[in-house]
Design a protein that fits this description.
It is a single chain. The chain is built from three helices and eight strands. By secondary structure, it is an alpha/beta fold. It has a four-stranded mixed β-sheet with strand order 1-4-3-2. A hairpin with a 5-residue loop joins strand 3 and strand 4.
């Protein structure tokens, strides 16, 4: 079986973002390394101003999944750094086990967020909400709607 692990790129605020995600999802970081902890790359010199940026961080989630990230280390990056940071055409979709968990996650991620779709029942039968969090990462949160007593079974 394959595992999907979203990998996010930040522009200097990965540590703050992951402290926030830790408060949302719980758990402990399984790995955290600053740029200054890595060996110097051949022909590339780390700018001292970037030494405290994160080279890599991992936050284990449920079911063996992992949320990972790094800061863009501009002094050693090759390629279009701004294109890597944008990422606003991507969403992380979370399917919660139940409505209460979906609402809890949405509420926590909503701190300082731009709400794009408030948590609400949908025509496809899920509870669904969508937002861009305070770090610009876009999330979709959903769960199956729970049957209420007195509701006919399908």
């Amino acid at each position: 079986m394959q595992t999907l692990s979203p990998y996010l790129i930040f522009d200097g605020n990965a540590a703050a973002a992951f402290d926030f995600y830790k408060s949302v999802f719980g758990g402990e970081f399984s790995f955290k390394m600053k740029a200054s902890d890595t060996p110097p790359e051949e022909g590339k010199k780390l700018d001292p101003a970037e030494a405290d940026k994160l080279m890599h961080i991992c936050l284990p989630l449920a079911n063996g999944q992992m949320l990972m990230a790094s800061d863009m280390i501009h002094s050693v990056c090759s390629g279009d750094a701004q294109a890597m940071i944008q990422g606003n055409n991507q969403f992380i979709n979370i399917r919660a086990d139940n409505e209460a968990e979906a609402r809890r996650l949405f509420e926590k991620l909503s701190q300082g967020a731009t709400i794009q779709v408030d948590m609400q029942p949908t025509f496809w039968g899920d509870l669904f909400g969508q937002l861009a969090d305070q770090f610009g990462v876009q999330w979709m949160i959903n769960s199956a709607l729970e049957k209420k007593e007195g509701t006919p079974n399908e």
